[in-house]
Amino acid sequence: MATLSSFLLFLCFLLLPGVLAFTGPPEQSYPCPCDCPPQKETQIHLFLHQFPAWGNVSNPNEVAFQGWAADHWLLTGGPDPNNNIVGRAKGYHLLTGDTNKDWYISHIYVFEDQRFAGSTIQVLGMFDGEWSIIGGTRAFSNARGYIKYKEVPKLDVHIFTPDTSTAV
């Protein structure tokens, strides 16, 4: 009898994935399980300026060690690093592979401009591609989002925060 029940249990686990597969495709979006506030999106177009401590660089904003670098990069509203400084990208990047694009970054963007002064976002990701925004402070409290770029230094920043203007 124990063998028959063990076999039936095994058969149940064996067939369960097939049964679940025929229940239909999962929903594309899942409703918020709680009373989630509406989200607002802030889009910012930034330029990141990285000046490694090389012999020909007079004002370096990163210090490199073996396989990693400490960063204090400039964030500006335009391509000129001397005008319209919006903030700083403070953090580090680590070489995680064999190519020049295999860098993992961890930064806190500290905004200095009048609109978002003192606000921050936490940014993580691989150098080549898209970066995640996993948190923030002040104007970007409870932020999430992403940063897209085709080629650094131009960044397309999308920050999602709870929309407190609709709060009761």
Automatic annotation (TrEMBL):
<dbReference type="InterPro" id="IPR044859">
    <property type="entry name" value="Allene_oxi_cyc_Dirigent"/>
</dbReference>
<dbReference type="Pfam" id="PF03018">
    <property type="entry name" value="Dirigent"/>
</dbReference>
<feature type="signal peptide">
    <location>
        <begin position="1"/>
        <end position="21"/>
    </location>
</feature>
<dbReference type="InterPro" id="IPR004265">
    <property type="entry name" value="Dirigent"/>
</dbReference>
<protein>
    <recommendedName>
        <fullName>Dirigent protein</fullName>
    </recommendedName>
</protein>
<keyword id="KW-0732">Signal</keyword>
<dbReference type="GO" id="GO:0009699">
    <property type="term" value="P:phenylpropanoid biosynthetic process"/>
</dbReference>
<dbReference type="GO" id="GO:0048046">
    <property type="term" value="C:apoplast"/>
</dbReference>
<comment type="similarity">
    <text>Belongs to the plant dirigent protein family.</text>
</comment>
<keyword id="KW-0052">Apoplast</keyword>
<comment type="subunit">
    <text>Homodimer.</text>
</comment>
<keyword id="KW-0964">Secreted</keyword>
<comment type="function">
    <text>Dirigent proteins impart stereoselectivity on the phenoxy radical-coupling reaction, yielding optically active lignans from two molecules of coniferyl alcohol in the biosynthesis of lignans, flavonolignans, and alkaloids and thus plays a central role in plant secondary metabolism.</text>
</comment>
